[in-house]
Amino acid sequence: MSLMWMPDEADGWSAVELENAAYALRPNDSTLTRHEPGSRPPSDGALLVPCASSNAGDTFALLARPADAARVNGVAIQNGMRVLRDRDSIQLANRSPLYFSSEGLPTVEPLPESDQPLFCPRCKASIETGSPAVRCVSCGSWYHQSEEFPCWTYSESCVCGHPTALDGNHRWTPDEL
Ligand SMILES: [Zn+2]
Ligand SMILES: [Zn+2]
Predict the structure, then answer these.
(1) 89-142 confidence digits (pLDDT tens)
(2) CB of 3 within 8 A of CB of 23?
(3) pLDDT band at 158; cut points 50, 70, 90
(4) Which of these ranges, 9-23, 41-55, 150-164, has the smallest mean pLDDT?
(5) CB 92 within 8 A of CB 69
(6) Which pLDDT value is given to residue 40?
(7) 134 C-alpha to ligand 1 centroid (Å)
């Protein structure tokens, strides 16, 4: 799941999780509001719209009107549209930038039904549909994660190298800039 890092009143950052929905960004305030399908797009500012992809809600494009209403990484949007990448900064008018992040947080969830049996990269055994599992947010591999089979947290990192901490902390925040 992707995020938008928004500056908060305490000079820090707060993360807004983006659902698979459109959002409006206005130049005169620092809020992200849900844009209902079929309603009028904002007459100024920008629209954040989800792009179709294998992981719905991971990829977003920014549509701006007029095109120079928004800058991504300091550059005015070409042709009024730009697909966002991890850690892109978004600036409307002269406001301080927001940051897009495609970093999801690993969570324990029941393994969804799939056409083919899934094998845990750690213990090599199959994972039963509906049993507690974690999907790596980086490589997409599924692991067992129960008291009996704590395969995801068994090592500090996934086979792809992504950390396996389930502490709910993001690895990157705009503070790192
Ligand atoms: Zn396992
Ligand atoms: Zn991984």
Answers:
(1) 999 887 889 999 988 889 999 999 989 999 999 999 999 999 999 999 889 999
(2) no
(3) very high
(4) 41-55
(5) yes
(6) 81
(7) 10
* Domain boundaries defined on the chain: 3-101, 105-177
Judge contact between 133 and 38, C-beta under 8 A.
no
The strand pairing partners of 137, in sequence order, are none
Which candidate, 127, 124, 170, places its Cα nearest to that of 145? Answer: 127
Q: What pTM, to 2 d.p., does this model score?
A: 0.77
Q: What tokens were used for 125?
A: 């055994």
Residue 84 structure tokens? 């966002």
d(CA 107, ligand 2 centre) in Å: 13
Query: Whole-angstrom Cα distance, residue 153 to residue 35?
Result: 38
Give me ligand 2 centre to Cα 161, in Å: 6
CATH architecture for segment(s) 3-101: Sandwich (2.60)
DSSP codes of every residue in 32-90: EEEE-TTSPPPSSSEEEEEPP-SSTTS-EEEEESSGGGEEETTEEPGGGEEE--TT-EE
What pLDDT score was predicted for residue 53? 62
Mapped onto helix, strand or coil, the DSSP state of residue 176 is helix
Q: What is the CA(7)–ligand 1 centre distance, in A?
A: 40
CA distance 154 to 136: 14
Provide the percentage of residues in the chain whose pLDDT is more than 70.
96
